Amino acid sequence: MTTATVALPSTFSLGLARGRVELRRFFRQKEAVVFTFSMPAFLLVLLGSIFDGTHEGTGVSAGQLFAAGMIGSGIVSTSFVNMGTGVVFDREDGTLKRLRGAPVPAGAYFLGKIMLVAVAGLAEVVLLLVVGALLFGLKLPATPEKWLTLGWIFVLAATSCSLLGIAASAVARSATGAAALMNLLYVGFQFISGVFVTPITVLPDAMVDFASFFPVKWICQGLRSVFLPESMASYELAGTWELGKVALVLGAWCVVGVVLCRLTFRWTDDR
User: Fold this and answer.
1) Which DSSP helix (H) or strand (E) runs through 13?
2) Which value, in Å, is the radius of gyration of the alpha carbons in the chain?
3) Mean pLDDT, rounded, of the chain
């Protein structure tokens, strides 16, 4: 008599199941959902309303300039901040320890997190596009090429920032500490990367040079190329959009992020 062999679920199918759990858990936390989605939109409305006027010779308002950059800020929020705090929360409440002891591969856990980042990130982009269009006249990309640029920037931005969020989660000892750390880094980089202070050319050179080593500056610069006319490229440091360098820097941070995650990721609080 032979014993039938039961095929175990694949990592992909387990990851999809884990993703559904992540999404349900996230959207049940109403305060976290409101804060995650409303903060970039609130800052956009605030900054776009305070700094009025049009940039000379471009026809682009301050609100449109802020809106293009804040879309990048929203992607960073839903990837870096969300991933960093989420991993620490899972470690603190024992979720990671239980998953490690179960026949669930690590890849399935991270695939579930990727699904959460993708859904939340896309929702954030749509929300900021609606706010930017209704309040400040931000226009959607006019050509297939610009839609394609928006797509690859979103993928590279969400991937690099998610990986860096996972790596940064190793520093925090608690979910409360993680929230403080991630939001401190998030807000700080918005200032030095030309998101809250525009155009970026008004910032001190040393500050911009430092910001240029990290993804946020390049994410927002790339997205400005998608939503703003070519005349606005002159407001960038190099006088051009530098999309090739945007792809290179974000791709490099994806590689660096993988290395950092492998070196620093912890399943438990044991130090």
Assistant:
1) helix 11-28
2) 20
3) 88
**SS3 of 61, please?**
strand
Rounded distance between C-alpha atoms, residue 150 and residue 260, angstroms: 27
pLDDT of residue 18: 87
Q: Find out whether 153 and 67 touch, Cβ atoms under 8 Å.
A: no
Res 1: pLDDT: 46
CA nearest 16: which of 110, 85, 151, 123? Answer: 110
Residues 6+ apart with CB under 8 A from 212: 218
Closest CA to 59 of 142, 134, 137, 135: 137
pTM beyond 0.85: yes
What SS3 state is found at 173?
Answer: coil
What does the block give as tokens for 216?
């946020």
How big is the CA angle at 154 (ends 201 and 112), to the nearest 5 degrees?
135
Q: Which two tokens stand for residue 161?
A: 């920032």
Neighbouring C-alpha atoms within 13 Å toward the C-beta of 256: 15
| Dist. CA 258–CA 30, nearest whole Å | 31
For the chain, the distance separating the N- and C-terminal CA atoms, rounded to the nearest angstrom, is 50
Q: Half-sphere exposure of 120 toward its Cβ, with a 13 Å CA cutoff?
A: 34
Is the bond into 199 cis (omega within 30 degrees of 0)?
yes
Q: Residue length, the chain?
A: 271
Q: How far from chain centre, in Å, is Cα 70?
A: 11
Q: What is the largest CA-CA distance in the chain?
A: 84
Q: What gap in Å lies between CA 194 and CA 190, rounded to an integer?
A: 7
Tens-place pLDDT, residues 167-196:
999 888 888 888 899 999 999 999 999 888
